[in-house]
Amino acid sequence: MKRRDFMQLAGMSAGAMMLPFSSFANEVDVAHLLNPLLDVAQKKQLADVALNTAKSLGATYTDVRIGRYLNQFVITREKKVQGVQNTESFGAGIRVIVNGTWGFAASNNVTADGIKKTTERAVAIAKANSKFQKEPVKLAPTPSYGEVSWKTPIVKNGFEVPIKDKVDLLLNANAKALEKGASFVNSRMFLVNEQKYFASSEGSYIDQDVHRTWPGFTVSMIDRASGSFKNRDAFSSPVGMGYEYLDGKAEDKVAGPGGITLYNKSYDIVEDATFAAEQAKQMIAAKSVEPGKYDLVLEPSHMWLTIHESVGHPTELDRVLGYEANFAGTSFLTLDKWQTKKFNFGSDKVNFVADKTQVGSLGAVGYDDEGVKCKSWDLIKNGVLVNYQAIRDQAAIIGEKESHGCCYSQSWSDVQFQRMANVSLQPGKERLTPEQMISGIDKGIYIVKDGSFSIDQQRYNFQFGGVLFFEIKGGKIVGMLKDVAYQANSQEFWNSCVQVCDERDYRLNGAFNDGKGQPSQSNAVSHGSATARFNGVNVINTARTI
Amino acid sequence: MAILSKEDAKKILEKVISFSKADGIEANLNGNDGGNIRYARNSVSTSGEDSNVSLGVQSYYGKKSGAATINEFDDASLEKVVRRAEELARLAPENPEFQEPLGPQTYGAEPKTFIESTAKITPDYRAQAAADSINPASAKDITAAGYLEDSRGFNSMMNSKGLFAYNKSTSVDFTVTMRSSDGTGSGWVARNFNDVSKLNTGEASKIAIDKALQSRNAKAIEPGKYTVILEPNAASDLISLMLNMNARQADEGRSFLSKKGGGTKLGEKIVDERVTIYTDPWNEEVPTANWTGGGLARKKMDLIKDGVVSNLIYDRYWASQKNVEATPFPGNRIMLGGNASIEDMIKDTKKGVLVTRFWYIRAVDPQTLLYTGLTRDSTFYIENGKIKHPIKNFRFNESPIIMLNNLETLGKPMRVASGGGPGGGGASLIPAMKIRDFTFSSLSDAV
C-alpha cells in the first residue's frame, strides 16, 4: 500500500473515513485472495526473461521482483459496518545496473512480453542517468541461494477467517465500549499478505509468503459541557502473525501498574474496548501536569516509538551518508563518531539489537528484497555505537563484508532501498518488575501507549506524548495526569536511562507505516523493550485555549 | 493508453453502465503516467517510471454495495468486472450511510489543469533537470540532494443516473536540499506547477545554495515567544492543518470547530479579520478539477471569510442527516494576501525570526489544534530591520488558530504544494506572513 493511502486509513480514527485504494491495487473478492495466480515454475520462467533481456542489453546486475500484495480492511463505527475491502496488487519491478548506474521500471503487465518491455525501460533509464553518474554502484557480495522459500510462521491465515467473524468481533468490541459510556468508537481490522518472488542475475530464486495483522480501535469520550474530548486508542500492536493474534489468551495478558491491562503475544479486543471507555472518562477528569523535570517510566507500548525515532532512524546508513538529505534527513550518528569505537550513545544499560528474524515481528522475513539472507546484529553495545543498518550498495563504506539484509520495497511498483530492521532495547540483566521500578521513584510519570511524536531531521531533539499518564509520588502511583509531553536530546535521553526491567516484561510493538524515501514508501517494523526508567526528563504542559 | 480523451473514456464508461443489472451503478475510469528522478551526494541515486489505467465499478442493491476494479478493457472484461461488483454487493453487509449516486451536475468551464509540455517530460529531461541543480552546487562546494516528480493523468466517471464527469491534469513537483561541505549550513527550495515550462531547477537551486552558505555556523538563541516571518511554504505547512473542516466531527464534539456546550463554530470569528481563505477550481495559478468524489460539482466557495468560519465540509450522508447541501471537498486553497515582500517585513521587524520551512509537524492536541514541529534548512535572527545571523533550529508548539489571531502582516501569495510535497495532492496559494508571539519551546542541534 502506498503511504499516502495508508495515511487516509490512519486518519479514520478521527471519525472521517476514506477507504484506502492503492493506485495499483484492484478490488477483489475473498475467494480470489486465496487462489495462487502463478506457481513458482511460472514465476521463474518470467524472471528469467528479465534477467536474460537485461544481460543482452548490457546490464551488469539485474533483480526482478514479481509481487502479489493482498490487503483486507474491515472498518466499523458504533453499530455500523462502514467498509469491507479486499485489494490485490500484482506486478513486477525490475532493477538493473548499467554503466555503474541503477535503473528501475515496473509494470502490472506480468507476461513474457510485458516483462521484456519493462526491462528495456529500466535499462534505458539507467543509461540516461549514467551520463551524470559520479559514484558508480558497488554491491557487497551475497551468496547465491538457488531456489529457496520462506513463510511467516502463522497459525491461522486471517484471509481464511470469514468476514462475518471479523465484523462480529469489531461490533462486539464497539458495543462494550458504548455500554461503558463511550461517545463514539471506530474500529478496524487490517490484514496484509505479501507474496514475493525474487530472482537475481547472481543465481538466487526466492519465494516468500509474508503475513501481518493489525486490529485496533479508537474510543472517543466527549464532555459537551466543558467542550473537551479525549481519544483512547487500542492497546493492540500490528504484528507479524496470523489471526491467532486475536485469540486473547489469558497467559498473554499483563497486569500493569495503575490497574491497567496490557497485552503481549495475543490481544483481547473486546476486553480492551471495555477498559478504554472507562479510561477515556478518567483521561478527561485527570489533573493537568505541572511542567518540570520528572523521572519517566516508559512502558513498551509507548517506548517502541521513542526507540523507532531516536535509535532506529539515526542508525540507518543511507541517512548517515546523505541519501535522505532532501526528505527524511541525515543523522547525528556520523561516521567519525562510529569510527572512534567509543561514542557514548547511552548509559551502560542501553543495548540495541537490529533483527530481521524475530518471530512475531513486523520486519521478519527469510531474505530481504535484494536476496540477502536475514540476520540480527548489534547497533549499540553497553551504550556505545558499534554499527549501522546497511544494504548491498553501502555496506563496504563501513567495512562490512556483506549487507545486513534490510532492503525493502513496499510493492512491486516501487524501487527497494534501505529500510529499518526491528530495532529493540534489550531487557535488563537483573530481575526487576515495573512495580519495583516505580517504588524507587519520588517524582515521576508512568507513560503507556504512543501518542504525539516529532523529531528533527538529524534526530537530536524530540517531543513525545502518550495515551495514559500516571503520576508517581513517593514510590506510588497517585492518579492520572493529562496534557503531558516530554522533550529531550536523543543522546542525553539515552544516557539518562538508569534501569530496564528484565525479560519477563519484554514486549513487541510497532507500526505498519514507517515512511521514508521519495516517492515515499511505507515499511512495517517492530520494536521490543521492557519497561525502562529515564531520570530527570523535561516535561511540558500542552494545554491551550482557542 | 494511460491518458484517454474525454470521448474515449465516455465510450468505455457507457459500455460499463450498459452491463448493469443492479439497482444502480457508478464507474470510475482513471489513468496516470508518472516519472521521477532522485539525487543525493551530487549524483543521481534512483529514478523510475510507472504507468497504470484502471476501472473501478461500484454496484448496489438498496443499501448494500460492492466494488471491483480491473485494468483490461475488452467487452468481456468490462462485463466481468460489473458482474463481480454485483456479486460482492449481494454479499455485503448493509451500510446505513450508503448514498445513491448523484444525478447530472453542472460543472461550468473546464479548468486549465492539463499542460502539454508537462505531459511530454522524458527521462532525458529529468536527468538534465537534476544536472542543472547539481552542477551549480558542485561549483560552490555544496552537496545537493533533490527530487523531481512529474505526472499526467485523467479521471472520469459515469453512473446509472446519467452523470458523466471528466478531467485531465498534469503536475511537476521539485524540491532540493543544499548542504555546505562542513555540514553546518543547509538551504531548501520547493517548486510546484501544472506547467513545467515555469520550472527552472537551476534558478531554484541557486536560492537553496545561497541559503546553505548564509546559514553556516548558526548561533543558539533562547527559546521563547518570538515574532516570526514565515515564508509561504512554512505558512502553508501550518495553515493546511486547519482546513480539514469536517462538519460531522464538529457536530460530534471532537474537533477544534466544536463549541463548548454543543454545536459548531460555523459563523463564528475564529481568527484575525484579515484572514480570508477560499477555494476556486478555476483559479489560473492553482487550477484543479471542477468535480470531486461521486461527481459532486465543485464551486468557488469561502472557507474562512474575514476571520469567520463560512463553510464546514458536509459529506453527502452527513448533509442528508442535517438537511443541508453536501459540500464538495476543496481541491485547492487560496488565501488572500497583502503587498508586503519578505524584505519589507524584515525591515519592519525590531526583533524576530525568519523561517524557511517547518519539519515533522504532528498533532499534540486535536481539541486546540496544537501542533509541534521544528524549523529546518535556514532559520535567521532579525534585529532592527536586518537579518543579523543564522540561528539554530527551534522546536515549536503552536496552534494555527492562535497563530492567525496573532497576525501582523500578510505578504504576496505563492503557489505551494498542498500536503507537504510531491504526491500530497493539489496546490495552494498562500502568502508569506508575519506573526507575533509564536511559541518556540526548545532548541535543536540539527542542521
Can you describe what's shown?
The complex is a heterodimer of chains A (546) and B (447). Chain A has 546 residues and is of the alpha+beta class. Chain A has 2 domains: 3-285, 2-Layer Sandwich (PmbA/TldD fold), CATH 3.30.2290; 288-541, no CATH class. Chain A contains 11 helices and 28 strands. Chain A has helices spanning 3-10, 30-34, 40-56, 112-130, 163-179, 269-285, 300-312, 317-321, 335-339, 434-439, 490-495, and strands at 26-27, 61-77, 80-98, 101-107, 146-151, 184-200, 204-223, 228-233, 253-255, 261-263, 287-288, 292-298, 352-355, 376-381, 384-385, 407-408, 417-418, 422-425, 443-448, 453-455, 461-464, 468-473, 476-482, 484-489, 497-500, 507-516, 521-529, 532-541. In chain A, the strands form 6 sheets. In chain A, strands 11, 12, 19, 20, 21, 22, 23, 24, 25 and 28 form a 10-stranded mixed β-sheet that branches. In chain A, strands 1, 2, 3, 4, 5, 6, 7 and 8 form an 8-stranded mixed β-sheet that branches. A 4-stranded antiparallel β-sheet of chain A has the order 15-14-13-18. Mean pLDDT of chain A is 93; it is low at 1-23. Chain B is an alpha+beta fold. Chain B has 2 domains: 6-212, PmbA/TldD fold (2-Layer Sandwich), CATH 3.30.2290; 218-447, no CATH class. Classes of the chains: A alpha+beta (546), B alpha+beta (447). At the A-B interface, strand 1, strand 3, strand 4, helix 4 and strand 8 of A face strand 1, strand 2, strand 3, helix 2 and helix 4 of B.
Task: Briefly characterize the structure.
The complex is a heterodimer of chains A (546) and B (447). Chain A is α+β, with helices and mostly antiparallel strands.
Describe the protein's topology.
The complex is a heterodimer of chains A (546) and B (447).
Chain A lengths: L2 H8 L15 E2 L2 H5 L5 H17 L4 E17 L2 E19 L2 E7 L4 H19 L15 E6 L11 H17 L4 E17 L3 E20 L4 E6 L19 E3 L5 E3 L5 H17 L1 E2 L3 E7 L1 H13 L4 H5 L13 H5 L12 E4 L20 E6 L2 E2 L21 E2 L8 E2 L3 E4 L8 H6 L3 E6 L4 E3 L5 E4 L3 E6 L2 E7 L1 E6 H6 L1 E4 L6 E10 L4 E9 L2 E10 L5
Helix pairs in contact in A: 3-4, 5-6
Chain B lengths: L5 H13 L5 E17 L2 E19 L2 E7 L4 H17 L24 H4 L3 H17 L2 E18 L4 E17 L5 E8 L7 H14 L9 E7 L1 H8 L7 H6 L24 E3 L21 E5 L2 E2 L6 H7 L9 E4 L6 H6 L3 E15 L4 E14 L2 E5 L3 E5 L1 H6 L1 E11 L9 E17 L4
Parallel strand pairs in B: 7-12, 11-17
Antiparallel strand pairs in B: 1-2, 1-4, 2-3, 4-5, 5-6, 7-17, 8-9, 8-11, 9-10, 12-13, 13-14, 13-15, 15-17, 16-17
Helix pairs in contact in B: 1-2, 4-5
